[in-house]
Specification:
single chain; alpha/beta; Rossmann fold; 7 helices; 8 strands; globular
Length: 244
C-alpha cells in the first residue's frame, strides 16, 4: 500500500471557504475581492505562459496540449480561464461545496474540467505542465509540506505560479483591519501570522528543487483597483520552475 503524506488542509479553513461556495460566482458577493483580483493575476499568468512556451503569444489557446493543475481552486475562477486557454485542467479544493459549485458553473459554460475535493498530497497523477495555487498557501496547515506536494506534481519542464499576501504591517492594515471590516472580505478569512514573506516562500520552493524565475507585487489603488507592481508589500506572485 502506497504511503500517503498527511494532508496539509486545515479543516477550519476548508469549512470557512465551503460556507461561501454558493456565492462564489457573484461579483458583488463574498468573493468580490477575488473577482477584482482575477483579471490582474490572469495577465501575470498569461505573460508567464508566453515567456515559458514562446511562439503562441497571439494565440487564444496558448495552453493547447498542456495539462494544468489548480490547487485550492474554489469554484473555478482561475480554472475556467485556464481551460479556455486550451489546457486540460484538474482543479482541487478542500471544500466539497466549492467543488459542487465549480462543477455546476463549468457545465453551464460548456467547459470540461476535472474538479475533485482531494488534497494535493493524495492526487495520484503528476507531470502537470502548469501548477497554480492562488491565495492558498496562507490557509494551509504546513506550508513547507504543501509546497513540496505542489513540486511533486510539476513536470520536469513545467511552470509553477503562486500568489499570496506578504506579512507586512501594510498587508495587515489592507487585508484585515480594512479588508475584513469595510473592504468586502469575509471576517475570519485571514490569519496575518500565517502570511509568508517572499524570501520565506522562495526558500520553501528552493528546498523542493525549484528556482524562482520571476516575481511581481500586486498593489491596490482606490481609483484604478488592482495592478501589477514592483511593490510587494501587500500581495505578490511568484513563478518557479525545476532547477536545471
Amino acid at each position: 500500500m502506497a504511503h500517503i503524506a498527511p494532508a496539509t488542509i486545515d479543516p477550519k479553513e476548508a469549512a470557512h471557504f465551503g460556507a461561501m461556495a454558493a456565492d462564489w460566482w457573484n461579483p458583488a458577493g463574498s468573493s468580490a475581492m477575488l473577482h477584482k483580483l482575477n483579471p490582474v493575476r490572469l495577465r501575470y499568468i498569461r505573460a508567464a505562459i508566453d515567456g515559458h512556451w514562446p511562439g503562441r503569444e497571439q494565440a487564444f489557446r496558448p495552453l493547447a496540449d498542456k495539462r494544468a493543475l489548480d490547487v485550492g481552486c474554489g469554484a473555478g475562477l482561475l480554472a475556467e480561464p485556464l481551460a479556455r486557454m486550451g489546457a486540460s485542467v484538474t482543479g482541487l479544493d478542500a471544500a466539497p461545496e466549492n467543488i459542487a459549485a465549480a462543477n455546476a458553473h463549468a457545465q453551464g459554460q460548456g467547459l470540461a474540467i476535472d474538479y475533485r475535493a482531494t488534497p494535493v498530497e493524495e492526487l495520484a497523477e503528476g507531470g502537470f505542465d502548469l501548477v497554480t495555487s492562488m491565495e492558498v498557501i496562507e490557509h494551509v496547515a504546513d506550508p513547507a509540506a504543501f509546497v513540496a506536494a505542489l513540486a511533486r506534481k510539476l513536470a520536469p519542464e513545467g511552470l509553477m505560479i503562486l500568489s499570496t499576501p506578504n506579512r507586512t504591517p501594510l498587508s495587515r492594515l489592507a487585508m484585515i483591519t480594512i479588508g475584513e471590516s469595510v473592504g468586502g472580505i469575509p471576517k475570519g478569512t485571514h490569519d496575518w501570522g500565517k502570511f509568508l514573506k517572499p524570501d520565506e516562500l522562495t526558500a520553501l520552493l528552493e528546498q523542493t528543487g525549484l528556482n524562482v524565475t520571476d516575481s511581481s507585487g500586486l498593489s491596490f489603488d482606490p481609483a484604478r483597483g488592482f495592478a501589477l507592481s514592483a511593490n510587494q508589500a501587500i500581495n505578490y506572485l511568484l513563478t518557479a520552475r525545476h532547477k536545471r
